[in-house]
Amino acid sequence: MREAAFVRQNKDKWLKFESVLVNNALIAPDELSDLYIEITDHLSYAQTFYPNSQTLNYLNGLASSAHQKIYKTKKEKKNRFYSFWVKEFPLEFYKYQKQLLITFLIAALFTAIGVYSSATDGAFVRSILGDSYVNMTLENIANDDPMAVYKQMGETNMFLGITINNIRVALNCFILGVMFGIGTIYMLMQNFIMLGSFQYFFYDKGLLWESVRTIWIHGTIEISVIIIAGCAGLVVGNAILFPRTYTRLTSFVRGVKAGLKIVISTVPFFIVAGFLEGFVTRHTEMPDWLAIFIILGSLSLILFYYVIYPRQLYNKSKK
């Protein structure tokens, strides 16, 4: 890239950073640190391609001036735990709404594939869910208790087992993002083709509503946060494939940090989903209005924390 084009592409960021330094404007320590990393990446680029240039001298001055300010400003707050959940993470997650939408669309596509495949191939459901599960469920249907599978294990054991398994799935979705996001997409394919097949199986038996009002008591949060964990994996994959002005290593590290925060944010929700599956879903005798209330309340909570609230914080920060 020619020096003039490099300057033209990045000068707005440099001027913004310089304004923060010169005017001593208040800025979040983490944001200042991120700006500093970007400036140092530009400095390294200029050292390689534009030695002895005015651009190199300018960036070197910016980086030197910034170093002291970063480490003077960046102090851990006593309420960091509260700040992470209420301010820091939701505001940062606003940047990944595009990846979240893409993950949701991928999940919806694989769910549709699961439904279509089950509808057109009678053996598909058994190949996905397994003969033992299908046979057990058919026996439960014959006994007029199609959701009996949620009553077979003790509440506490089921809660712990489901929660640990779901967190494992989320970590796999995140970690496999290092395979340029392909590993994450594979995990989403496995889980959501299964979901589509599972729902079609009950639809085919005339039990769609019974399955929805029971399974989605816990499934609303569980499935939603698997999508969010998939978003974390795509953030990592995107950072590797598209480093922008960062070095690929720096972009990868930033992507991993961002993805890890996203996965950490899902842990409390997986605990809630595990609690619902272990202690609440088994009560298939509950009235429809209560099941619908839990499902809609769960959906509202997810949408607020991961979509609406980040946008609110972002708009407030721009004022």
UniProtKB/TrEMBL annotation:
InterPro entries: SpoIIM-like. Keywords: Membrane, Transmembrane, Transmembrane helix. The chain crosses the membrane at residues 100-119, 215-241, 262-283, 289-309. It comes from the Bacteria. It holds the Pfam family SpoIIM. Coiled coil: none annotated. This is Stage II sporulation protein M. The lineage of its organism: Bacteria, Pseudomonadati, Bacteroidota, Flavobacteriia, Flavobacteriales.
